[in-house]
Design a protein that fits this description.
single chain, 367 residues, alpha/beta, Membrane-bound Lytic Murein Transglycosylase D, Chain A, D-Maltodextrin-Binding Protein, domain 2, 3 domains, 5-stranded mixed beta sheet, LysM_dom_sf, LysM peptidoglycan-binding domain-containing protein, signal
Length: 367
């Protein structure tokens, strides 16, 4: 069943439930919810899950919300997934088992004939839930890309290698041909290449990218009452001290003209330092993915001292990259694209993501 048809069926089923049960009008996991005036994905997630992380709602309603998580219209019906990632209470729990191929990608079904080298993937650790070899399948991005090698008519062997110096992936390992495909990288809007810094522009000029593996939301966080907490235009961030982790992407800010000296960039090594700096008055805005931000805010116990700007955010495109000098790069990306397309059509894409997020949440709760 196509995933679009699945969501149509879900919406119809949940609409009936809403008529029969007043609880369906509340923000509760495992139900349908009708958006009211003043709602944001953050407030809905807080009511339904007790967390500021609304990525799970965005994932489940991607075709309804499009690329604007801030564009909620009153009357819109949203599916609020169960806390374990299921779309409805009677759906089977998402699987977090490895894909059919092993981590080395061996496949007994490979055809005999022309030599077909294993596709060499490279990723790095410490970027949960997207890439971390301690997670089942290596995390969301790695697991989606490797599973795609055995979907959509593909049957290709692969290896997954872990190099924790992320910068080396794009400056040396992929350009030299040591590896074929890099996982997982955010891609800028290449139509705005003239606004990008040299390092960000190279993602457009030097690399080819797959279809989106995943599309995280990146938000802006400020203290309640700050003029930045309710800014409605990026121009209103002028003069702000914005925190973005060292080594992380900056193209989303560059595309909006948020570069020095218009703003002051603060680049610490750890996520916690961004919010701690805000608490001490040294930072005005923290720019961070909503999943990461919600985790840090909860860990620091500052839920009442931080708010997400409800008007401004970015939907990031996380992709697999191949250097343009790689003679097989586009062929491998085409394989990934075919596999991803099938996975989205069958619902396996959502199953991989929700299963991984549930695994991460269970680990966090046990710590």
């Amino acid at each position: 069943m196509k995933i679009q048809a699945t969501f149509v069926k879900l919406a119809a089923t949940c609409a009936v439930v809403a008529i029969m049960s007043p609880a369906a009008f509340a923000q509760e996991a495992c139900t349908n919810y009708t958006v009211k005036d003043g709602d944001t994905l953050g407030t809905i997630a807080k009511a339904a899950y007790g967390s500021l992380d609304y990525q799970i709602i965005f994932n489940a309603n991607r075709q309804i919300l499009g690329s604007n998580p801030n564009g909620l219209e009153p009357g819109t019906e949203l599916v609020l997934p169960c806390e374990d990632g299921r779309l409805t209470a009677d759906a089977p729990a998402p699987s977090i088992e490895l894909p059919e191929a092993s981590s080395t990608g061996s496949s007994s079904g490979s055809s005999v004939g022309a030599y077909r080298p294993k596709v060499k993937f490279v990723s790095g650790n410490d970027w949960s839930p997207f890439a971390d070899e301690s997670l089942t399948g290596g995390g969301i991005a790695v697991r989606l890309a490797t599973t795609a090698m055995h979907r959509g008519g593909n049957d290709r062997e692969y290896t997954v290698n872990w190099v924790d110096d992320w910068d080396s992936h794009t400056t040396a390992l992929l350009p030299s041909g040591a590896f074929d495909i890099g996982l997982a990288w955010y891609m800028p809007n290449c139509e705005k290449i003239g606004m990008l810094s040299e390092s960000m522009a190279k993602r457009c000029t030097d690399y080819d990218a797959s279809l989106p593996l995943y599309e995280p939301v990146s938000g802006f966080y400020a203290k309640p009452g700050s003029k930045y907490a309710t800014a409605k235009a990026y121009a209103d961030f002028e003069g702000a001290r914005i925190c973005r982790l060292e080594g992380y992407y900056t193209f989303d800010l560059e595309e909006q003209g948020l570069v020095e000296p218009t703003i002051t960039m603060v680049r610490p090594a750890k996520r916690e330092e961004c919010f701690e700096g805000m608490m001490f008055g040294n930072i005005d805005i923290v720019a961070m993915e909503v999943q990461s931000a919600a985790d840090v805010i909860k860990t620091l116990g500052i839920e009442a001292e931080v708010v997400e700007n409800p008007y401004l955010s970015s939907v990031m495109t996380m992709a697999a990259l191949a250097h343009k000098s790689n003679p097989f790069g586009r062929e491998y990306l085409a394989m990934i694209n075919r596999g991803l397309t099938e996975m989205r059509d069958t619902g396996e894409w959502y199953d991989v993501i929700s299963g991984t997020l549930q695994e991460v949440n269970e680990r966090s709760a046990s710590n």
